[in-house]
Amino acid sequence: MRVGTDSSKFPGALAHGAAWTFEEAARHGLDGVFLRSPWELSSTLDVGEMREALAVAAGLGLYVQVGIGKVDPFTAPELPQIRDHGDGDYVRGLVRLVGTLTDLGITDLWAATCNYQFRYRSILACDRFRTDVSWPDQLVATSRVLDLLAPALRANGAHLDLETHEEITSREVVALVEGAGPDAFGITFDTANVLVRGEDPVAAARRVAPYVRATHARDVALHTTENGIGRFLLPVGEGVLDWPAIVGALLDANPDLPVSVEGVTTSRAEMTLWVDDARWYESDPGLDPVELARVRELTAAYEARARTGDAPTLDQLRSPLDEAESLAFVLDSARALRGFATRRAAA
Question: Per the database record, which ranges form the Xylose isomerase-like TIM barrel domain (predicted)?
Answer without folding.
Answer: 22-282
